[in-house]
Structure formats: structure tokens, C-alpha cells
Design goal:
198 residues; three-stranded antiparallel sheet; elongated
């Protein structure tokens, strides 16, 4: 699901040769949106989802995708459970979960924000703009930036490259690890992933 639309891009100053009607715009919007949602660990805008959680001996199971606005059903090993309460971004059960050891708890719930926050919209728009600017360079603009070029000298032309296994191939759609961690924390990714959305 795309987080932004083409009209959202119109508020940004773009070079005259960038055409927002070009099909590549929607491809980049979808790609940037997918990267941001993947980093968050769950949909950001309000949606209904189903998640499977491995429950140990805890009373509170946290759900991914904050804020949790409504819980529709909870099942344990496929059997409906009614002795729970919605609390603190999750579900609380006084007798605890996983009474017989680890068990799978399936939760059908609605979560996410009613509207996309302005900072997230801006980030996705900037990712798309960066992709569009590189696309305007032709085929060379679509080359992966491996992050290895660390310096350039002009007189007697020199280039220096970083080395090592920690240098990854990236595109404009790649988020830095710090940003991924911030999104995961902000939108309640506790290690569980949403397995289905309606």
C-alpha cells in the first residue's frame, strides 16, 4: 500500500524535466512506501491485521503496529479466548498466556494512525524525489550505489574506496539502520510481524 500519492509530490520544487505523470513515479512511490513499512514492521496508517504471537509465561502480549485501536478476536491454538483486556499496546490476561508452555496466540485487530504523520510523508516524498533525480540521468542513474566511494580528488583525478564486508549495495529506497530502528520503535515492532492485513 502506497503511503503517498502523486499529488503529494506536487508541493516539492522539482526540475522542469521531471514529469510526475511518468509511470516510474508510481514505481518509486511503491518502493519507498514498502521500505518504510518494512522498517516500521507493520502498517503505519490504520488497518485491520492478523498477527501470530508465540506466547510464553507472560500476562501482557505486546502487539506490533501502534497504536492499537480495537481488538476483534483472540484465539489460542485456534480456540477463542475471552478472558483478556486491551492494555498498553497489547492484550492482558490475568491468568497469563502460555499456561501449557509456549503457544501460538492469534490476534485480529485494528491498529495504526488515522493519517500518515507529516514527517513520514516528507521522508517518502524525498526518497521518491531522489530516485526521480537519478532516473533523469538515464541508465547510469539506476546503478546501485555501493557506498564504497569515500573521496574524489580533481587535479590528477583520484578516487578512494571503502572496503570491507560492512559496505552494502544501496539505492535511494534504502533506509539507514538508525532510521529503521527509529521507525520500528515508534510503530511498535516488538519482533513480531503482521502476517495479514484486510
Amino acid at each position: 500500500m502506497a503511503l503517498i500519492t502523486v499529488p503529494d509530490m506536487e508541493q516539492y520544487p522539482l526540475p522542469a524535466d521531471v514529469n510526475l505523470a511518468d509511470p516510474i513515479v508510481q514505481v518509486l512511490i511503491d518502493s519507498a512506501s514498502a521500505e518504510v513499512v518494512d522498517a516500521a514492521g507493520s502498517p503505519i496508517v490504520s488497518t485491520r491485521s492478523t498477527v501470530d504471537l508465540l506466547a510464553g509465561r507472560a500476562r501482557l502480549l505486546r502487539l506490533p503496529g501502534l497504536p492499537v485501536t480495537e481488538i476483534h478476536s483472540v484465539t489460542v491454538a485456534g480456540q477463542p479466548v475471552a478472558d483478556w483486556k486491551q492494555a498498553a499496546g497489547g492484550i492482558y490476561r490475568p491468568s497469563g498466556w502460555g499456561e501449557d508452555g509456549a503457544e501460538i496466540v492469534t490476534v485480529d485487530y485494528t491498529h495504526g494512525l488515522p493519517a500518515l504523520p507529516a514527517d513520514i510523508k516528507d521522508m517518502v516524498c524525498r526518497m521518491v524525489i531522489s530516485g526521480l533525480l537519478n532516473a533523469s540521468e538515464g541508465a547510469d542513474g539506476f546503478a546501485l550505489d555501493n557506498g564504497r566511494l569515500s573521496s574524489v580528488a580533481i587535479d590528477d583525478y583520484k578516487e578512494s574506496y571503502a572496503t570491507g564486508d560492512t559496505v552494502d549495495a544501496i539505492t535511494e529506497m534504502s533506509l539507514p539502520q538508525r532510521t529503521r530502528e527509529r521507525l520500528a520503535k515508534r510503530f511498535g515492532n516488538y519482533g513480531a510481524k503482521v502476517v495479514g492485513s484486510l
